[in-house]
Amino acid sequence: MENCNGTGSLWYEQIQTELFLKIKLVITSVSCLVNLLLSLPLLFVITRNPSVQHKLRYVLLANLLICDNLQLLLGTVHFSTSFYLLHCSLINCFMFIILSFNFCTVEIFFTIAFSVDRCIAIKWPLQYETIFSSGRKKTIVAAVWLLAILLTLVALFVALNKLPMNVPIERCHLFIVAPCLSDSGIFEGYNTLMSAILLLGSYVCILGCLLLLCWDIRLFLKTQRAWVTLVMQVLQLIFYSAPLLVDIFLIKNLKHMDDIDLTISAIFNLGISLVPLVYGYRSVELQGLLWKLLPLSRNTIQPISC
């Protein structure tokens, strides 16, 4: 892995490459399909009902669902191409890594905004509309997407000037791409530092909002519905963030363990697919709107979820 001349020093395998890529493709494509099927009804009711469009949490949820589906679609396209060719070019690998990282950034920022929105709505309901005015809601959403686009453009500009274009590699990982960049040590250090600041800062903020809400609504937490929702949110956060942390900080130590790599991918995709279940279908308001879409729903009593 010391050079980028395509002689094979960048390649490694524990499982045969074709089988490895096939498993990756199956995991990602199934997750993409499941997440799309879960997301479409939620996106439909959010975009078709003005009563929920002016609420920040549903605007954030819609953008979160779009981000997750784009991320899974990107993975499906990448692994489909890699499986067909049994390799990918170095520049395509770098683009996939950067785009995936920025989708994760968008996901984390929207999750933070969602947590802060719920915290303010419950603790300071009278000041909520003042804090999150219509203009600020649009600014928050636009700022998150613009930041991700800016980071992507900067990273691609650097890559196009420092990476060889058509060097084939079998496995796409940051520790394979980084040595091919000049000043790769600086690049890896910057990536680790930014990831640590982003992830640790984000999760401290999310955890702080969660603990604050749990203290303020401790009586409400005695209900079964509240506990189910809380446990699902914690599980989704763990399933999404744990593989991300391993992939950033520990993957170099696991680079010859394809079974662990596949397990990380499966858990990460599960964390993404839990987003519509945790933040969408647990909402009583969205449940009511979804129920109205069902045939004969007006003649039946709406169910109350536990």
Automatic annotation (TrEMBL):
Domain G-protein coupled receptors family 1 profile residues, every copy: 38-279
InterPro entries noted in UniProt: GPCR1_Superfamily_Member, GPCR_Rhodpsn, GPCR_Rhodpsn_7TM
Entry annotated with the keyword Kinase: no
Compartments, record wording: Membrane
TM annotation in the entry: 25-46, 58-77, 83-116, 140-160, 193-215, 227-250, 262-281
PANTHER family the record matches: G-PROTEIN COUPLED RECEPTOR 148-RELATED, G_PROTEIN_RECEP_F1_2 DOMAIN-CONTAINING PROTEIN
Stated name of the protein: Olfactory receptor 3A2-like
Higher taxonomy: Eukaryota, Metazoa, Chordata, Craniata, Vertebrata
